[in-house]
UniProtKB/TrEMBL annotation:
Annotated Gene3D superfamilies: Aldolase class I
Keyword field: Amino-acid biosynthesis, Cytoplasm, Diaminopimelate biosynthesis, Lyase, Lysine biosynthesis, Schiff base
Lineage of origin: Bacteria, Pseudomonadati, Pseudomonadota, Gammaproteobacteria, Enterobacterales
EC number: 4.3.3.7
Coiled-coil regions listed: none
Localisation per UniProt entry: Cytoplasm
Function statement: Catalyzes the condensation of (S)-aspartate-beta-semialdehyde [(S)-ASA] and pyruvate to 4-hydroxy-tetrahydrodipicolinate (HTPA).
Catalyzed reaction equations: L-aspartate 4-semialdehyde + pyruvate = (2S,4S)-4-hydroxy-2,3,4,5-tetrahydrodipicolinate + H2O + H(+)
InterPro entries: Aldolase_TIM (IPR013785), DapA (IPR005263), DapA-like (IPR002220), Schiff_base-form_aldolases_AS (IPR020625)
GO molecular-function terms, A-Z: 4-hydroxy-tetrahydrodipicolinate synthase activity
Name of the molecule in the record: 4-hydroxy-tetrahydrodipicolinate synthase
Assembly notes: Homotetramer; dimer of dimers.
Organism whose genome encodes this protein: Candidatus Fukatsuia symbiotica
Associated pathway: Amino-acid biosynthesis; L-lysine biosynthesis via DAP pathway; (S)-tetrahydrodipicolinate from L-aspartate: step 3/4
Length: 307
């Protein structure tokens, strides 16, 4: 279930900053049609930091509803307050989500023991599968391999999204955990190398606009056809890089709007729209990727976007 191309889904908003559920439905259908293996709803790319709690829950549940069992939905449930993370996790109990993605507590800078106790308490509060999420560049703390190994002994902690971009982490963690524990890359630029070292998939920002291509890339890697995977990866290389030219999800939201996947590229403050200079940068990255397979949801025909 937690393998292959897993999209870190944006949360579309209208020009007034309200969640655009029509566009959200379109995105879910696009990923089902494109072969995406799972959706992360309300992670970092989904702007979880600026949505109110009830909005957060509603976006996840609407995504589950639209998915209708066609594609697993993973709910972002992280918080830097342990009790808040537990409360949010429990709101998705028996609601059809496939699991939860929980980020390390940001700003607090806990010790490794503090991290262990945080995730342990969350896992013990639910029977939903838990995916740990380590992204020190966002949170200011690093979940070290030894702590991952301790947490992997807890029955429903089943995976780690490792977004440091440090490929040495793969072998370090593999040496400490059971082989059934799933390692996922959270970094598009190094994701293929991560899989070649034993990772099982990529939680991808690029997949928001290149869903079929990322699904194929991960499929080839899973099958051991790294020549084919690397060809695709090279084609998408500029997207992997320049979708982070400003704070995520600013560039990818602009690209989604540019491709007609969403109606507006609205973000909530303090994030701002993509600057004019970087619009040109992202446009060039789209051009370098060549034709991207975008599905029209008003009819069952594949459209090809060619910038």
């Amino acid at each position: 279930m937690f393998t292959g191309s897993i999209v870190a889904l944006i949360t579309p908003m209208d020009e007034k900053g309200k969640v655009d559920y029509k566009s959200l439905e379109k995105l879910v259908d696009y990923h089902v049609a494109s072969g995406t293996k799972a959706i992360v709803s309300m992670g970092t790319t989904g702007e979880c930091a600026t949505l109110k709690r009830d909005e957060h829950v509603d976006v996840v549940l609407k995504t589950v509803e639209r998915a209708g069992g066609r594609i697993p939905v993973i709910a972002g449930t992280g918080s830097n307050v342990t009790e808040d993370a537990i409360s949010l996790t429990q709101r998705f109990q028996n609601k059809g989500v496939a699991g939860c993605l929980t980020i390390t507590p940001y700003y607090n800078c806990p010790t490794q023991e503090g991290l262990y106790q945080h995730f342990k308490k969350i896992a013990e509060s639910t029977d939903l599968p838990q995916i740990l999420y380590n992204v020190p560049s966002r949170t200011g703390c690093d979940l070290l391999p030894q702590t991952v190994a301790r947490l992997a002994e807890i029955k429903n902690i089943v995976a780690l999204k490792e977004a440091t971009g440090d490929l040495t982490r793969v072998s370090q963690i593999q040496a400490l955990v059971d082989e059934q524990f799933i390692l996922l890359s959270g970094d598009d630029r190094s994701g293929l190398d991560f899989m070649q070292l034993g990772g099982k998939g990529i939680v991808s920002v690029t997949a928001n606009i290149a869903a079929r291509e990322m699904a194929d890339l991960c499929k080839y890697a899973t099958q051991g056809d790294f020549a084919a995977a690397r060809g695709l990866n090279q084609r998408l290389g500029s997207l992997h890089q320049y979708l982070f030219v400003e704070s995520n999800p600013t560039p990818v939201k602009w690209a989604c709007q540019r491709l007609g996947l969403i109606a507006a590229d609205t973000l909530r403050p303090p994030l701002m729209s993509l600057t004019d200079v970087n619009q040109r940068v992202v446009e060039e990255a789209l051009q370098s990727a060549g034709p991207l397979e975008i599905y029209s949801l008003s009819r069952d025909a594949a459209l090809v976007f060619n910038s």
